[in-house]
Each structure stands twice: as C-alpha cells, then as structure tokens.
Write the structure tokens for this entry.
Amino acid sequence: MQILTAVSSPILTYRIAKEIKAKILPTERKKFPDGEIYIRLLEKPENDVVLIQNTYPNEGIIAAIIAMQALKSEGANDITLVIPYFGYGRQDRKFLDGEPVSAEAIAKILSVYADRVILIDPHKDYIKEFFDVEAKVLHAYETLAEMLYPLDVDLILAPDAGAVDRAKNVAKILGVDWDYLEKRRLSGEEVEIKPKELDVEGKNVAIVDDIISTGGTIIEATKALKSQGAVNVYAACVHGLFTNFAIHKLAQLSIDDVRVTDTIEGPLSVGSVAPIIARALV
Ligand code: R5P
C-alpha cells in the first residue's frame, strides 16, 4: 500500500505512513500563474493507494480529483480517499429553496475516481450516504481526549444539544462529567449562548466541538462559562479552520487553551488523528 497527499496534509500523511509502515508515493506540485494547480506522480503507483486530501479550501477538491485521475491512469486500481476535513459539509441539506446540497455534489464527484472513502468527523455522519462508493466515518474522540488529558478537566461541554455525542464520548474516555450549552446561531459569524444553569463554579471546563471557524461559538461559550465561575476554560476541536482572524480573537479572550487536531494542519494542531486513520487502513 502506498500513501500520498495532493496538497493539504503532508504532516498527517507522514504520520499515517509511519504508523502503517507504508511508502509515501513521491509527487511534485506547483501552481500556475493563473492559480491552477499541477500535480505529478514521480513514480508509478502500486495497485492499492491511499490519498489523504481535504476538500478545503476549494483547491483541495480539484487537487483530490486530479490526483486520483493521475493515480488511475498510471495504474492504481484501488484508491482509498481519506478526507480528514470534509469542506462544504455544513451545507449538508437545503436550508432555503434554490440552494444546493453542496456536500452531496462534492461527494458524487469524488466517487467518480475513489473506490472507498474515509471521513473524519464530518459535520453530520449522514454525509457518508452521499458517496456512490463505500464511505466510512471515523470520530476523533480519542484524539480530543488525549489533547485534554494533561489539562485536568472536570467537565466536558458540547456547545449545543446536537453535539452531545462527542462530549459524552470524550468525557467517557476521560472519566469525567459532561453537559451541553444552548447555542443559537444569529449569523455566519455570530452566535448566542443562552444562559443555562451549569455547575461550573471552581471547575476546569472544556468545550469540545467539530469545527472552530470564526471562533464565535468558543468565544461566546468561554464568556458565559467564565461569568458562571469556571476557573479554566479550554477548547478542543477536531478541525481548526480559524477563519476571519479567529486566532487573534481567541488570543485576546480569557480562554486558557485551544487545541485542535491535524485534520487541518496549523499552529494549534497539537493532536493527531493518524492512529485512528491508520487502524482503519490496515
Ligand atoms: C456548528 O454546527 C459547528 O459544530 C461549529 O460549532 C461551528 O461551525 C463553529 O463555528 P464558529 O467557530 O464560526 O462559531
């Protein structure tokens, strides 16, 4: 089995390759002056290949398609496409008339070349059904728990009732309590955390979520928890997008630590989903 990334995940690919003792397929990539991307395989691929590629940012979708086209035309017969962060996953249904189900559109296109797909914490698990090939969802519960373990957390909180499964599972691994906040989204950037009686006085509390995008959710949750007497507030999320100067905003807040995984590689990616992906590949 060989492994490669097109553009998004060189560090995660290296970590998975080490775990499963697979060879990294050498590739070359560049960008044309008009912004188009170019990928070249520098060796003939083996029959079974694993491509690790995010569908974020937009370029990642094109990179996945053209890398798989090259793999198939150069002789790979079996491509496992691992999508650590499935971009466009939040448009997983039609909210207003005339809107696309973007997650479905992308899944269908990727199914043209991929033989199977592995998704890590997509926005909704049912996204896997949009693929025309076998698709599996993996959850990064153990990575979130590992990142939080040294912080001596007393309580795990989900930002809303829809995300309690993650909080429950992480809390179970750490052997601590869990609860959830009540969030209402006001706009793409603004959220409101409704006051809710939680017993956080004197406690170390961690908010766990799938995505940090603008940071709005974490910022409002931190303010609410600190005002209710939490001693330390931490955030552990799977996918750290950090859009719209989110890191700047978080750094100015009284949050005590923010930790994300390497599904999107960045400065706050202190945990790795490599062991979870590796187990699914062997
Ligand atoms: C929402 O459904 C997600 O689970 C996240 O809570 C959300 O995407 C976070 O976005 P932001 O950081 O912009 O509040």
About this structure: The chain is about 30% helix and 30% strand. The two ends are 10 Å apart (CA to CA).
